[in-house]
Amino acid sequence: MTKDPYEGSDRVLTGVPIYVRADSEAVEALGVVGGQVAAQGTLPDVRRAVGLDVPVRALAHGALLPAFVDAHQHGVLVALDPHTDTLYRAADDIAGLMHVVSQHCAETGDGWLRLHGYEPMALTERRSPTARELDSVCPERPVHVISRTYHESVVNTAGLDALRIGSTTPDPPGGRIVRNRRGRPTGVLLEAASFLAEQSSRPPFDLAAVESRLDGYARRLLASGITRIGDAAVPADLADWYVAAMARRGISVQPMLVGDRIDEPHIRTGSTAKVLADGGEYCHLCMSGRQVARIFADSSRAMFGAEASTARAVGRRSGFPRREGDGRWHTGIRFPEEVELPALMNAAAEAGAGLAIHAVGNGAVDAVLAALTARPDLAGFLPVRIEHAMVLDPRLVDGIAATGVPVVAQPGFLSAYGHDLEVVPVPQPLSLMPFRTMLEAGVPVAFSSDFPAAGLSPWSAVADAMARPDGRGGHIHPDESLTARQAIRAYTSTAAEVTGLSDGGTLEVGSPADMQWVDADPFTNTDPRRLTVLGVWSSGIQVYAGR
Fold first, then answer.
1. CA geometry: angle at 333 spanning 342 and 327, to 5°?
2. Model pTM greater than 0.85?
3. pLDDT category, 109, cuts 50, 70, 90?
4. CATH assignment, 216-282+332-504
5. On the CB side of 82, how many CA atoms lie within 13 Å of its CA?
6. CA 474 to CA 456: how far, in whole Å?
7. What CATH number belongs to 1-67+505-547?
8. I need a labelling partner for 326 at 20 to 30 A (CA). Which of 80, 367, 398, 516 fits?
Protein backbone atom coordinates (compact mmCIF):
# COMPACT_ATOMS: atom_id res chain seq x y z
CA MET A 1 0.00 0.00 0.00
CA THR A 2 1.36 3.39 -1.01
CA LYS A 3 1.93 5.76 1.87
CA ASP A 4 -0.26 8.87 1.83
CA PRO A 5 2.10 11.77 0.97
CA TYR A 6 0.09 14.02 3.29
CA GLU A 7 0.12 11.76 6.32
CA GLY A 8 0.73 14.08 9.19
CA SER A 9 3.85 14.60 11.27
CA ASP A 10 3.20 14.34 14.99
CA ARG A 11 3.45 17.63 16.86
CA VAL A 12 1.88 19.91 19.46
CA LEU A 13 1.05 23.49 18.48
CA THR A 14 0.66 26.25 21.06
CA GLY A 15 1.58 29.89 21.72
CA VAL A 16 -1.46 31.53 20.09
CA PRO A 17 -5.25 31.32 20.53
CA ILE A 18 -6.40 28.10 18.85
CA TYR A 19 -10.00 27.95 17.64
CA VAL A 20 -11.26 24.41 17.20
CA ARG A 21 -14.39 25.76 15.51
CA ALA A 22 -15.37 29.22 14.39
CA ASP A 23 -18.02 29.31 17.14
CA SER A 24 -15.84 27.94 19.98
CA GLU A 25 -13.66 29.63 22.54
CA ALA A 26 -9.91 29.44 22.12
CA VAL A 27 -7.83 26.62 23.60
CA GLU A 28 -4.16 26.67 24.56
CA ALA A 29 -2.78 23.73 22.60
CA LEU A 30 -3.53 21.29 19.79
CA GLY A 31 -2.03 17.83 19.35
CA VAL A 32 -1.64 16.29 15.87
CA VAL A 33 -0.90 12.58 15.43
CA GLY A 34 -0.94 10.74 12.10
CA GLY A 35 -2.38 13.73 10.28
CA GLN A 36 -5.39 14.04 12.57
CA VAL A 37 -6.25 16.15 15.57
CA ALA A 38 -5.59 13.90 18.56
CA ALA A 39 -6.16 16.29 21.46
CA GLN A 40 -7.00 19.90 22.24
CA GLY A 41 -7.09 21.85 25.50
CA THR A 42 -4.43 22.96 27.93
CA LEU A 43 -0.80 22.38 27.03
CA PRO A 44 -0.17 19.85 29.84
CA ASP A 45 -3.32 17.89 29.00
CA VAL A 46 -2.50 17.78 25.28
CA ARG A 47 1.09 16.68 25.91
CA ARG A 48 -0.05 13.85 28.16
CA ALA A 49 -2.65 12.77 25.58
CA VAL A 50 -0.23 12.57 22.62
CA GLY A 51 2.92 11.59 24.49
CA LEU A 52 5.61 13.73 26.05
CA ASP A 53 8.05 12.79 23.29
CA VAL A 54 5.97 14.59 20.62
CA PRO A 55 7.71 17.88 19.72
CA VAL A 56 6.10 21.18 20.75
CA ARG A 57 6.05 24.17 18.38
CA ALA A 58 5.16 27.55 19.83
CA LEU A 59 3.72 29.91 17.23
CA ALA A 60 4.96 33.47 17.72
CA HIS A 61 1.78 35.52 17.28
CA GLY A 62 -1.63 35.57 15.65
CA ALA A 63 -4.14 32.70 15.83
CA LEU A 64 -4.68 29.14 14.59
CA LEU A 65 -8.04 28.03 13.20
CA PRO A 66 -9.51 25.55 10.70
CA ALA A 67 -8.50 25.95 7.08
CA PHE A 68 -11.13 27.32 4.72
CA VAL A 69 -13.41 25.21 2.53
CA ASP A 70 -14.34 27.02 -0.70
CA ALA A 71 -17.64 25.32 -1.53
CA HIS A 72 -18.06 26.68 -5.07
CA GLN A 73 -15.27 27.75 -7.41
CA HIS A 74 -13.77 26.80 -10.77
CA GLY A 75 -10.21 25.62 -10.41
CA VAL A 76 -10.50 23.24 -13.35
CA LEU A 77 -11.32 26.17 -15.67
CA VAL A 78 -8.21 27.97 -14.43
CA ALA A 79 -6.09 24.89 -15.10
CA LEU A 80 -7.49 24.28 -18.59
CA ASP A 81 -7.18 27.86 -19.85
CA PRO A 82 -3.85 29.70 -20.25
CA HIS A 83 -5.60 33.08 -20.38
CA THR A 84 -7.90 32.99 -17.33
CA ASP A 85 -8.31 36.50 -15.89
CA THR A 86 -6.00 37.98 -18.56
CA LEU A 87 -8.48 40.80 -19.20
CA TYR A 88 -9.48 41.49 -15.59
CA ARG A 89 -8.98 45.23 -15.02
CA ALA A 90 -6.75 45.30 -18.09
CA ALA A 91 -8.52 48.35 -19.54
CA ASP A 92 -11.05 51.01 -18.60
CA ASP A 93 -12.84 51.16 -21.93
CA ILE A 94 -13.41 49.15 -25.09
CA ALA A 95 -10.58 50.90 -26.97
CA GLY A 96 -8.15 49.85 -24.25
CA LEU A 97 -9.59 46.34 -24.23
CA MET A 98 -9.10 46.09 -27.99
CA HIS A 99 -5.47 47.15 -27.55
CA VAL A 100 -4.91 44.19 -25.21
CA VAL A 101 -6.67 41.84 -27.63
CA SER A 102 -4.49 43.08 -30.50
CA GLN A 103 -1.34 42.32 -28.50
CA HIS A 104 -2.46 38.73 -27.93
CA CYS A 105 -3.64 38.39 -31.53
CA ALA A 106 -0.02 38.50 -32.65
CA GLU A 107 0.61 35.16 -30.92
CA THR A 108 1.73 32.33 -33.16
CA GLY A 109 -1.02 30.21 -34.61
CA ASP A 110 -4.22 30.63 -36.54
CA GLY A 111 -6.60 28.81 -34.18
CA TRP A 112 -8.90 30.29 -31.60
CA LEU A 113 -7.64 33.21 -29.54
CA ARG A 114 -9.42 32.91 -26.22
CA LEU A 115 -9.16 35.61 -23.53
CA HIS A 116 -11.07 35.79 -20.26
CA GLY A 117 -11.84 38.24 -17.50
CA TYR A 118 -13.32 41.51 -18.76
CA GLU A 119 -16.29 43.03 -16.90
CA PRO A 120 -18.85 44.70 -19.20
CA MET A 121 -20.23 46.90 -16.44
CA ALA A 122 -16.74 48.09 -15.44
CA LEU A 123 -15.98 49.50 -18.89
CA THR A 124 -16.78 53.12 -19.66
CA GLU A 125 -19.32 52.03 -22.27
CA ARG A 126 -21.03 49.64 -19.79
CA ARG A 127 -21.28 46.90 -22.41
CA SER A 128 -19.42 44.13 -24.15
CA PRO A 129 -17.48 44.86 -27.33
CA THR A 130 -18.93 43.67 -30.64
CA ALA A 131 -17.69 41.41 -33.41
CA ARG A 132 -16.97 44.48 -35.53
CA GLU A 133 -14.76 45.95 -32.80
CA LEU A 134 -12.86 42.68 -32.44
CA ASP A 135 -12.51 42.51 -36.23
CA SER A 136 -10.75 45.89 -36.19
CA VAL A 137 -7.82 44.44 -34.20
CA CYS A 138 -7.90 40.72 -35.02
CA PRO A 139 -9.82 39.80 -38.16
CA GLU A 140 -7.88 36.77 -39.41
CA ARG A 141 -8.37 34.21 -36.64
CA PRO A 142 -11.44 33.37 -34.53
CA VAL A 143 -11.49 35.31 -31.26
CA HIS A 144 -13.52 34.54 -28.14
CA VAL A 145 -13.44 37.15 -25.38
CA ILE A 146 -15.15 35.88 -22.23
CA SER A 147 -16.56 37.96 -19.38
CA ARG A 148 -15.30 37.34 -15.88
CA THR A 149 -18.46 35.45 -14.92
CA TYR A 150 -18.47 33.25 -18.08
CA HIS A 151 -22.17 34.07 -18.58
CA GLU A 152 -21.52 36.57 -21.38
CA SER A 153 -18.92 36.68 -24.12
CA VAL A 154 -18.25 38.01 -27.60
CA VAL A 155 -16.72 36.50 -30.74
CA ASN A 156 -15.45 38.19 -33.88
CA THR A 157 -16.75 37.51 -37.39
CA ALA A 158 -14.31 34.64 -37.87
CA GLY A 159 -15.59 33.25 -34.58
CA LEU A 160 -19.20 33.52 -35.71
CA ASP A 161 -18.26 31.68 -38.89
CA ALA A 162 -16.42 28.96 -36.95
CA LEU A 163 -19.48 28.49 -34.74
CA ARG A 164 -21.78 28.59 -37.81
CA ILE A 165 -23.82 31.40 -36.30
CA GLY A 166 -25.69 33.55 -38.79
CA SER A 167 -28.87 35.57 -39.11
CA THR A 168 -31.07 32.48 -39.29
CA THR A 169 -29.39 30.58 -36.43
CA PRO A 170 -31.91 30.08 -33.62
CA ASP A 171 -31.09 30.91 -30.02
CA PRO A 172 -29.95 27.79 -28.17
CA PRO A 173 -32.15 26.63 -25.29
CA GLY A 174 -31.24 28.70 -22.24
CA GLY A 175 -29.18 31.21 -24.22
CA ARG A 176 -29.35 34.18 -26.52
CA ILE A 177 -27.51 35.32 -29.63
CA VAL A 178 -27.67 39.11 -29.44
CA ARG A 179 -28.70 40.66 -32.76
CA ASN A 180 -28.86 44.15 -34.25
CA ARG A 181 -31.98 45.79 -35.65
CA ARG A 182 -31.53 43.91 -38.91
CA GLY A 183 -31.42 40.58 -37.12
CA ARG A 184 -27.72 40.06 -37.68
CA PRO A 185 -25.59 38.67 -34.80
CA THR A 186 -23.53 41.35 -33.06
CA GLY A 187 -21.04 38.78 -31.76
CA VAL A 188 -22.34 39.00 -28.18
CA LEU A 189 -23.44 35.65 -26.75
CA LEU A 190 -25.40 35.17 -23.53
CA GLU A 191 -25.62 32.16 -21.20
CA ALA A 192 -25.96 28.83 -23.10
CA ALA A 193 -24.88 30.53 -26.34
CA SER A 194 -21.70 31.64 -24.58
CA PHE A 195 -21.22 28.13 -23.16
CA LEU A 196 -21.31 26.69 -26.69
CA ALA A 197 -18.55 29.07 -27.74
CA GLU A 198 -16.62 28.29 -24.57
CA GLN A 199 -16.59 24.62 -25.43
CA SER A 200 -15.56 25.22 -29.06
CA SER A 201 -12.79 27.69 -28.24
CA ARG A 202 -11.22 25.73 -25.38
CA PRO A 203 -7.56 24.92 -26.15
CA PRO A 204 -6.52 21.28 -26.68
CA PHE A 205 -5.68 19.40 -23.49
CA ASP A 206 -1.93 19.65 -22.90
CA LEU A 207 -1.09 17.64 -19.76
CA ALA A 208 2.24 19.35 -19.04
CA ALA A 209 0.78 22.85 -19.43
CA VAL A 210 -2.32 21.99 -17.40
CA GLU A 211 -0.23 20.45 -14.61
CA SER A 212 1.91 23.59 -14.48
CA ARG A 213 -1.14 25.86 -14.19
CA LEU A 214 -2.57 23.53 -11.58
CA ASP A 215 0.63 23.89 -9.55
CA GLY A 216 0.26 27.65 -9.54
CA TYR A 217 -3.44 27.53 -8.70
CA ALA A 218 -2.93 25.09 -5.82
CA ARG A 219 -0.32 27.44 -4.36
CA ARG A 220 -2.82 30.30 -4.58
CA LEU A 221 -5.44 28.23 -2.75
CA LEU A 222 -3.06 27.27 0.03
CA ALA A 223 -1.77 30.83 0.37
CA SER A 224 -5.41 31.87 0.86
CA GLY A 225 -5.88 29.38 3.70
CA ILE A 226 -7.93 26.94 1.55
CA THR A 227 -7.36 23.18 1.65
CA ARG A 228 -10.74 21.91 0.42
CA ILE A 229 -12.87 23.01 -2.51
CA GLY A 230 -16.07 22.27 -4.34
CA ASP A 231 -15.45 22.69 -8.07
CA ALA A 232 -18.69 23.64 -9.75
CA ALA A 233 -18.10 22.70 -13.40
CA VAL A 234 -15.83 19.70 -13.83
CA PRO A 235 -15.97 17.83 -17.17
CA ALA A 236 -16.99 14.28 -16.31
CA ASP A 237 -14.11 12.76 -18.30
CA LEU A 238 -11.55 14.77 -16.30
CA ALA A 239 -13.05 14.36 -12.83
CA ASP A 240 -10.97 11.41 -11.59
CA TRP A 241 -7.72 12.87 -12.91
CA TYR A 242 -8.48 16.30 -11.46
CA VAL A 243 -9.37 15.03 -7.97
CA ALA A 244 -6.19 12.94 -7.84
CA ALA A 245 -4.03 15.77 -9.21
CA MET A 246 -5.29 18.21 -6.57
CA ALA A 247 -4.92 15.63 -3.78
CA ARG A 248 -1.22 15.34 -4.66
CA ARG A 249 -1.01 19.07 -4.01
CA GLY A 250 -2.74 18.94 -0.62
CA ILE A 251 -6.20 20.03 -1.85
CA SER A 252 -9.34 17.90 -1.38
CA VAL A 253 -11.94 18.36 -4.13
CA GLN A 254 -15.65 17.65 -4.44
CA PRO A 255 -16.29 17.78 -8.21
CA MET A 256 -19.66 18.90 -9.53
CA LEU A 257 -19.94 17.18 -12.89
CA VAL A 258 -21.07 18.63 -16.20
CA GLY A 259 -21.35 16.98 -19.59
CA ASP A 260 -19.83 18.08 -22.87
CA ARG A 261 -21.19 21.57 -22.20
CA ILE A 262 -21.23 23.46 -18.92
CA ASP A 263 -25.04 23.66 -19.03
CA GLU A 264 -25.44 19.89 -19.35
CA PRO A 265 -25.56 17.91 -16.07
CA HIS A 266 -23.78 14.58 -15.82
CA ILE A 267 -25.34 12.24 -13.27
CA ARG A 268 -23.05 9.51 -12.01
CA THR A 269 -23.41 7.24 -9.00
CA GLY A 270 -21.87 8.79 -5.90
CA SER A 271 -21.17 12.10 -7.64
CA THR A 272 -22.73 15.56 -7.62
CA ALA A 273 -24.19 16.96 -10.86
CA LYS A 274 -24.18 20.68 -11.68
CA VAL A 275 -27.59 21.89 -12.92
CA LEU A 276 -28.50 25.36 -14.21
CA ALA A 277 -31.97 26.67 -13.35
CA ASP A 278 -31.32 30.19 -14.68
CA GLY A 279 -28.65 32.52 -16.00
CA GLY A 280 -26.04 34.50 -14.08
CA GLU A 281 -26.35 38.23 -14.73
CA TYR A 282 -29.42 37.24 -16.73
CA CYS A 283 -31.05 35.56 -13.79
CA HIS A 284 -34.72 34.62 -13.69
CA LEU A 285 -36.59 37.29 -11.73
CA CYS A 286 -40.30 37.09 -11.01
CA MET A 287 -42.19 40.21 -9.89
CA SER A 288 -45.65 41.65 -9.44
CA GLY A 289 -46.93 44.50 -11.59
CA ARG A 290 -46.40 46.90 -8.69
CA GLN A 291 -42.77 45.80 -8.32
CA VAL A 292 -42.14 46.27 -12.04
CA ALA A 293 -43.66 49.75 -11.87
CA ARG A 294 -41.31 50.65 -9.03
CA ILE A 295 -38.30 49.45 -11.00
CA PHE A 296 -39.23 51.60 -13.96
CA ALA A 297 -39.86 54.59 -11.71
CA ASP A 298 -36.44 54.15 -10.09
CA SER A 299 -34.85 53.69 -13.52
CA SER A 300 -36.43 56.90 -14.82
CA ARG A 301 -35.14 58.87 -11.88
CA ALA A 302 -31.67 57.39 -12.31
CA MET A 303 -31.67 58.25 -16.01
CA PHE A 304 -31.53 61.94 -15.18
CA GLY A 305 -28.81 61.66 -12.57
CA ALA A 306 -25.15 60.79 -12.43
CA GLU A 307 -25.96 57.09 -12.79
CA ALA A 308 -27.66 57.39 -16.16
CA SER A 309 -25.32 55.02 -18.04
CA THR A 310 -25.52 52.47 -15.28
CA ALA A 311 -29.30 52.59 -15.23
CA ARG A 312 -29.40 51.99 -18.98
CA ALA A 313 -26.98 49.10 -18.61
CA VAL A 314 -29.04 47.53 -15.87
CA GLY A 315 -32.13 47.76 -18.05
CA ARG A 316 -30.31 46.18 -20.98
CA ARG A 317 -28.85 43.34 -18.99
CA SER A 318 -31.98 42.39 -17.09
CA GLY A 319 -34.21 42.40 -20.17
CA PHE A 320 -37.69 43.81 -20.56
CA PRO A 321 -40.13 42.04 -18.20
CA ARG A 322 -42.82 39.93 -19.84
CA ARG A 323 -46.12 38.90 -18.32
CA GLU A 324 -46.70 35.17 -18.28
CA GLY A 325 -49.52 32.75 -17.54
CA ASP A 326 -49.13 33.03 -13.78
CA GLY A 327 -50.06 36.72 -13.98
CA ARG A 328 -46.61 37.80 -12.83
CA TRP A 329 -43.83 39.57 -14.71
CA HIS A 330 -40.71 37.64 -15.60
CA THR A 331 -37.27 38.60 -16.85
CA GLY A 332 -33.92 36.92 -17.34
CA ILE A 333 -32.95 33.62 -18.94
CA ARG A 334 -34.40 30.41 -17.60
CA PHE A 335 -33.29 26.83 -18.11
CA PRO A 336 -36.27 24.85 -16.65
CA GLU A 337 -37.92 24.49 -20.06
CA GLU A 338 -34.95 22.41 -21.10
CA VAL A 339 -33.87 20.97 -17.77
CA GLU A 340 -36.79 19.39 -15.97
CA LEU A 341 -35.82 19.57 -12.33
CA PRO A 342 -38.18 16.91 -10.95
CA ALA A 343 -36.98 14.44 -13.60
CA LEU A 344 -33.37 15.23 -12.76
CA MET A 345 -34.05 14.73 -9.08
CA ASN A 346 -35.57 11.34 -9.81
CA ALA A 347 -32.57 10.39 -11.93
CA ALA A 348 -30.17 11.57 -9.24
CA ALA A 349 -32.02 9.61 -6.56
CA GLU A 350 -31.92 6.44 -8.68
CA ALA A 351 -28.18 6.88 -9.27
CA GLY A 352 -27.39 7.78 -5.67
CA ALA A 353 -26.06 11.15 -6.82
CA GLY A 354 -26.49 14.72 -5.60
CA LEU A 355 -27.45 17.95 -7.36
CA ALA A 356 -25.91 21.40 -7.14
CA ILE A 357 -28.55 23.69 -8.66
CA HIS A 358 -27.50 27.11 -9.94
CA ALA A 359 -30.41 29.44 -9.11
CA VAL A 360 -29.63 33.16 -8.86
CA GLY A 361 -33.02 34.87 -9.20
CA ASN A 362 -36.15 34.48 -7.11
CA GLY A 363 -37.99 32.87 -10.04
CA ALA A 364 -35.34 30.17 -10.37
CA VAL A 365 -35.28 29.51 -6.62
CA ASP A 366 -39.07 29.24 -6.68
CA ALA A 367 -38.80 26.61 -9.44
CA VAL A 368 -36.28 24.63 -7.38
CA LEU A 369 -38.55 24.69 -4.35
CA ALA A 370 -41.51 23.59 -6.48
CA ALA A 371 -39.48 20.63 -7.76
CA LEU A 372 -38.46 19.68 -4.23
CA THR A 373 -41.99 19.84 -2.86
CA ALA A 374 -43.24 17.76 -5.81
CA ARG A 375 -41.19 14.91 -4.40
CA PRO A 376 -41.19 15.42 -0.62
CA ASP A 377 -39.85 11.91 -0.20
CA LEU A 378 -36.65 12.99 -1.95
CA ALA A 379 -36.13 16.35 -0.29
CA GLY A 380 -35.13 14.76 2.98
CA PHE A 381 -32.28 12.59 1.78
CA LEU A 382 -31.29 13.59 -1.75
CA PRO A 383 -28.07 15.64 -1.54
CA VAL A 384 -29.30 18.92 -3.04
CA ARG A 385 -27.75 22.35 -2.68
CA ILE A 386 -28.79 25.70 -4.13
CA GLU A 387 -25.95 27.74 -5.60
CA HIS A 388 -26.08 31.56 -5.24
CA ALA A 389 -29.76 32.34 -4.32
CA MET A 390 -28.91 36.03 -4.64
CA VAL A 391 -32.41 37.53 -4.94
CA LEU A 392 -34.88 36.26 -2.34
CA ASP A 393 -37.96 37.29 -0.42
CA PRO A 394 -39.09 36.06 3.04
CA ARG A 395 -41.44 33.49 1.54
CA LEU A 396 -38.62 31.84 -0.36
CA VAL A 397 -36.32 31.93 2.66
CA ASP A 398 -38.97 30.11 4.68
CA GLY A 399 -39.43 27.66 1.80
CA ILE A 400 -35.72 26.85 1.66
CA ALA A 401 -35.63 26.40 5.43
CA ALA A 402 -38.58 23.99 5.27
CA THR A 403 -36.72 21.74 2.81
CA GLY A 404 -33.49 21.73 4.81
CA VAL A 405 -31.56 22.38 1.59
CA PRO A 406 -28.37 24.45 2.08
CA VAL A 407 -27.48 27.59 0.14
CA VAL A 408 -23.96 28.15 -1.18
CA ALA A 409 -23.50 31.92 -1.40
CA GLN A 410 -20.72 34.27 -2.52
CA PRO A 411 -20.29 37.33 -0.27
CA GLY A 412 -17.44 38.55 -2.49
CA PHE A 413 -20.04 39.46 -5.12
CA LEU A 414 -21.11 42.34 -2.88
CA SER A 415 -17.94 44.37 -3.32
CA ALA A 416 -17.29 43.07 -6.85
CA TYR A 417 -20.71 43.78 -8.37
CA GLY A 418 -22.84 45.30 -5.63
CA HIS A 419 -23.03 48.87 -6.89
CA ASP A 420 -24.19 47.78 -10.32
CA LEU A 421 -26.80 45.51 -8.78
CA GLU A 422 -28.14 48.27 -6.57
CA VAL A 423 -28.26 51.20 -9.01
CA VAL A 424 -31.89 50.33 -9.57
CA PRO A 425 -32.82 48.77 -6.20
CA VAL A 426 -34.64 45.46 -6.24
CA PRO A 427 -38.24 46.11 -5.17
CA GLN A 428 -39.40 45.05 -1.73
CA PRO A 429 -39.74 42.50 -0.30
CA LEU A 430 -36.94 41.19 -2.51
CA SER A 431 -33.44 41.58 -1.13
CA LEU A 432 -29.91 40.75 -2.23
CA MET A 433 -28.06 38.00 -0.39
CA PRO A 434 -30.08 38.02 2.85
CA PHE A 435 -27.47 36.08 4.85
CA ARG A 436 -28.72 36.98 8.33
CA THR A 437 -32.37 36.31 7.43
CA MET A 438 -31.45 32.88 6.07
CA LEU A 439 -29.41 31.93 9.14
CA GLU A 440 -32.14 33.09 11.51
CA ALA A 441 -34.66 31.02 9.53
CA GLY A 442 -32.47 27.94 9.94
CA VAL A 443 -31.08 27.74 6.39
CA PRO A 444 -27.57 26.22 6.32
CA VAL A 445 -25.46 28.88 4.56
CA ALA A 446 -22.05 27.99 3.18
CA PHE A 447 -19.68 30.51 1.64
CA SER A 448 -17.52 30.33 -1.45
CA SER A 449 -15.69 32.52 -3.95
CA ASP A 450 -16.98 31.37 -7.37
CA PHE A 451 -13.45 32.23 -8.55
CA PRO A 452 -12.60 33.44 -11.16
CA ALA A 453 -16.00 35.17 -11.30
CA ALA A 454 -14.89 37.08 -8.17
CA GLY A 455 -11.80 37.29 -5.99
CA LEU A 456 -10.35 34.16 -4.38
CA SER A 457 -9.55 35.42 -0.86
CA PRO A 458 -11.89 34.02 1.83
CA TRP A 459 -10.74 36.69 4.27
CA SER A 460 -11.91 39.42 1.89
CA ALA A 461 -15.22 37.58 1.48
CA VAL A 462 -15.60 37.32 5.27
CA ALA A 463 -15.08 41.08 5.45
CA ASP A 464 -17.76 41.56 2.77
CA ALA A 465 -20.24 39.41 4.69
CA MET A 466 -19.61 41.53 7.79
CA ALA A 467 -19.66 45.02 6.21
CA ARG A 468 -21.66 44.33 2.99
CA PRO A 469 -19.89 47.01 0.88
CA ASP A 470 -21.11 47.85 -2.61
CA GLY A 471 -17.60 48.55 -3.91
CA ARG A 472 -18.24 52.29 -4.28
CA GLY A 473 -18.31 53.45 -0.67
CA GLY A 474 -21.91 52.42 0.12
CA HIS A 475 -23.46 49.37 1.74
CA ILE A 476 -26.05 46.83 0.58
CA HIS A 477 -28.75 45.82 3.07
CA PRO A 478 -26.48 46.35 6.12
CA ASP A 479 -29.13 44.72 8.31
CA GLU A 480 -28.11 41.42 6.68
CA SER A 481 -24.51 41.64 7.93
CA LEU A 482 -22.94 38.76 9.84
CA THR A 483 -20.54 38.54 12.75
CA ALA A 484 -17.00 37.30 12.20
CA ARG A 485 -17.87 33.97 13.81
CA GLN A 486 -20.93 33.48 11.60
CA ALA A 487 -19.03 34.33 8.41
CA ILE A 488 -16.02 32.15 9.24
CA ARG A 489 -18.28 29.24 10.22
CA ALA A 490 -19.95 29.53 6.80
CA TYR A 491 -16.51 29.26 5.19
CA THR A 492 -15.33 26.34 7.32
CA SER A 493 -17.59 23.78 9.03
CA THR A 494 -20.80 24.56 7.12
CA ALA A 495 -18.95 24.63 3.79
CA ALA A 496 -17.39 21.25 4.61
CA GLU A 497 -20.78 19.74 5.42
CA VAL A 498 -22.34 21.10 2.22
CA THR A 499 -19.55 19.77 0.00
CA GLY A 500 -19.69 16.35 1.58
CA LEU A 501 -16.22 16.88 3.04
CA SER A 502 -17.80 16.63 6.49
CA ASP A 503 -14.62 15.69 8.27
CA GLY A 504 -13.14 19.10 7.48
CA GLY A 505 -13.79 22.64 8.60
CA THR A 506 -13.06 21.99 12.29
CA LEU A 507 -10.11 21.03 14.50
CA GLU A 508 -12.11 18.70 16.72
CA VAL A 509 -10.54 15.45 17.85
CA GLY A 510 -10.55 12.98 14.95
CA SER A 511 -10.69 15.64 12.24
CA PRO A 512 -7.95 15.99 9.61
CA ALA A 513 -5.43 18.56 10.78
CA ASP A 514 -6.32 21.07 8.05
CA MET A 515 -5.52 24.40 9.63
CA GLN A 516 -4.30 27.91 8.96
CA TRP A 517 -2.14 30.25 11.00
CA VAL A 518 -2.92 33.96 10.57
CA ASP A 519 -1.07 36.99 11.89
CA ALA A 520 -3.89 38.35 14.11
CA ASP A 521 -6.93 37.07 15.98
CA PRO A 522 -9.90 37.32 13.58
CA PHE A 523 -12.38 37.34 16.47
CA THR A 524 -11.14 40.61 17.92
CA ASN A 525 -11.69 43.92 16.18
CA THR A 526 -9.37 42.90 13.38
CA ASP A 527 -10.26 43.87 9.82
CA PRO A 528 -10.30 40.48 8.05
CA ARG A 529 -8.95 42.08 4.85
CA ARG A 530 -5.74 42.92 6.68
CA LEU A 531 -5.08 39.37 7.83
CA THR A 532 -2.08 37.54 6.40
CA VAL A 533 -1.90 33.76 6.20
CA LEU A 534 1.42 32.71 7.76
CA GLY A 535 1.09 28.95 7.45
CA VAL A 536 -1.26 26.22 6.22
CA TRP A 537 -1.33 22.53 7.09
CA SER A 538 -3.07 19.81 5.10
CA SER A 539 -3.59 16.62 7.13
CA GLY A 540 -0.88 17.76 9.53
CA ILE A 541 1.79 18.52 6.92
CA GLN A 542 2.71 22.16 6.49
CA VAL A 543 2.09 22.83 2.80
CA TYR A 544 2.42 26.62 2.87
CA ALA A 545 4.64 29.01 4.78
CA GLY A 546 4.15 32.73 4.34
CA ARG A 547 6.90 35.29 4.25
1. 75
2. yes
3. confident
4. 3.20.20.140
5. 14
6. 22
7. 2.30.40.10
8. 398
